Every structure is written in structure tokens, then in C-alpha cells.
Amino acid sequence: MSTPPSALGAQGPARKPVRLCVRCDRITDEPVVVSEVHSGSGPGFNVYACPACAPCFPPLPDVLELFEDRGGSAGAGKGAG
Questions:
Q1: What CA–CA distance (Å, rounded) separates 81 from 78?
Q2: Domain ranges within the chain, ordered by starting residue
Q3: Which of 9, 65, 54, 6 is nearest to 28 (CA)?
Q4: Which residues contact 8 (CB under 8 A, 6 or more apart)?
Q5: Which of 15, 22, 25 is CA-nearest to residue 46?
Q6: CA distance readout (Å), 80 to 2, 66, 72, 73
Q7: pLDDT tens digits for the chain (81 residues)?
Q8: pLDDT at 68
Q9: pLDDT value at position 5?
Q10: 32-52 pLDDT tens trace
Q11: CA 53 to CA 46: how far, in whole Å?
């Protein structure tokens, strides 16, 4: 058996993720998340790029660092204090 048992699901081998690169418009089976789009009225979505185009995008920000940059503390919230 050439496929490791951990890659087998109930239906057989697991499918590789396939996504469209947002920069070169090619299909890639090695997608890299380059952006997260948030929505206030429903679920957000991820934006993907191929490994060759991914370095062209800035790194994703750490959400907790964004709060710290605004002068607040990451642990402070409603009812704190």
C-alpha cells in the first residue's frame, strides 16, 4: 500500500486542497493564505496564492498586535476592572 493510513479517510485517500491563485489566476494544489476577509454580516473567507506568488503579499497581521497598537491591552474587554 503506497498511501499512508493517516491520509486515508472513510471514502479513501484524502483530497489535496485546490485553490485559485489571486495574483496569477492559476490553479494550485499548494495554496498559501495571503489574506483573511472578515464580514460583519456573515462568514468571511480566505484569499489564496500559489507558493511562487505568495512572497509578493505582505504578511498577515497578528490580531492581538493590532489591539496593542491602538493603546489597549489584549486582555481588556467589557466588564474588566
A1: 9
A2: 16-69
A3: 54
A4: 14
A5: 22
A6: 55, 19, 12, 11
A7: 565 555 555 677 888 899 999 999 999 999 999 999 988 899 999 999 999 999 999 998 887 887 776 665 555 555 444
A8: 75
A9: 55
A10: 999 999 888 999 999 999 999
A11: 16
Q: Identify the burial level of 5 via C-beta atoms within 10 angstroms of its C-beta, where 0-12 means exposed, 13-18 middle and 19 or more buried.
A: exposed
Q: Write the DSSP assignment of 60-78 as a string of letters.
A: PPPHHHHHHHTT--TT--T
Give the chain's length: 81
Burial pattern 51-66, b for ≥16 Cβ within 10 A else e, equals: eebbeeeeeeeeeeee
Helices (H), the chain: 63-69
